[in-house]
Amino acid sequence: MRILHTSDWHLGHKVNRTYDYSNELFTQIERICQLTEEHQVDVLLVAGDIFVRRAPEVTKHLAKILSPYVQRGLHIILLPGNHDDREHFRMMNALLSLEQGGSDRVHIVETREIFTIKDVQFAVIPYPNRDLLEPHRADATGKTERNVVLSTAYANLVRSVVDALDPSLPAVFVAHVNVAGVTTPSEKELSYDQDIRLGTADLPLASNLAYIALGHIHQQQQIEHPIPCWYSGNIERLDMGERKDDKSVLLVDVPPEGVATVTTWEQEATLKLDATPFHDITIPAAELETLPSLYPDSDRAFFKIRLELQPGDDPVFLQRRVRESCPRCLDVTFSGQGLSRTAGNIPDRPEDFATTVLEYLRQVYADDPDLAELEKRTNELMREVNDVITAD
């Protein structure tokens, strides 16, 4: 059997809580579906965090993308992560079942399950929410102690699920959980203060276990273990902290006996995804106009920009030019010799204040039905400010 392992799609995500990311995420999902056919994949396995919020239109769009591939024989496994709403998952199940007429090739996991696809067993445990570990929550007080108790309960749950496997068939274990020892961009190991976690000694180990598929950590990485054990990583850069990450999927070949063979994008270049660029840069204000030539991807990239000012530079005007050159600029800050001299100055064009404020409001409140009224009141306020500046 050949599996394409991916996770953490985060549909519904907004970059910086402002910029809608639907087009980018769905483009990656469409590419992943194409890869299932290019590489003759039997099972598309999504190890949690498919959604980050309830959004019926997003769910319908996902079902529309997946349905043709299911009709052509692809099996799909979706399990909930910590961001996934269980009721939302049930709606996804209903939509895909309706599209496929109740197809047995769609496996949407709601709780711990064991099922078989083409003589390969899948032991699947979603993110440990209340439904899975509720009986153990009363055994501890305080976040850290509670996470330690729940982590122990989760490890026992993993053992019980793996013990229930049929030893005569190869098996894949799937979970959405933090495993001790994983790395993040901060290079800090996640602790019990932050989350439930599974110790490496508690990872399943059985004679017929071929692969361990994990979700939750956004950086693709292998966990040291006798059984091949991998986080696939997410499919798109979600913020500036992931700007250096490569994004890709994993191909996993499960043999009738023995452990699986895992193929990464370093071995097969087509598995690498074209992730959206994020740039964190410092540039002299005098070179601002060269930004589009320095970064040809500035129309789709997200930027965090520090401008080095010289005496006489106008920060308000420069900020406007940044927004015009980089429509997806997340933050603009200033430094340099001109900062102290200009920070308290009134700009040469007071109307720039209004333009900058209105542009910001239109980005943040683009879908707000009261945006027009907000713009009206902002204009009134800025006219009052302008009158005061002019009078002075």
Concise description?
By secondary structure, this protein is of the alpha/beta class. The chain has helices at residues 22-38, 56-71, 86-100, 130-133, 143-163, 291-294, 315-325, 339-342, 351-364, 371-391; strands at residues 2-6, 14-15, 19-20, 43-46, 75-78, 106-108, 113-117, 120-125, 171-176, 178-179, 197-198, 209-215, 221-222, 229-231, 250-253, 261-263, 278-284, 302-308, 329-335.
Q: Can you describe what's shown?
A:
With 392 residues, the chain is an alpha/beta fold. It has helices at 22-38, 56-71, 86-100, 130-133, 143-163, 291-294, 315-325, 339-342, 351-364, 371-391, and strands at 2-6, 14-15, 19-20, 43-46, 75-78, 106-108, 113-117, 120-125, 171-176, 178-179, 197-198, 209-215, 221-222, 229-231, 250-253, 261-263, 278-284, 302-308, 329-335. The protein folds into two domains: 2-271, Metallo-dependent phosphatases (Purple Acid Phosphatase, chain A, domain 2), CATH 3.60.21.10; 278-391, no CATH class. Helix 7 (315-325) links the parallel strand 18 (302-308) and strand 19. Helix 7 (315-325) runs parallel beside helix 9 (351-364) and helix 9 (351-364) packs antiparallel against helix 10. The longest helix has 21 residues, at 143-163. Mean pLDDT is 83; it is low at 341-348.
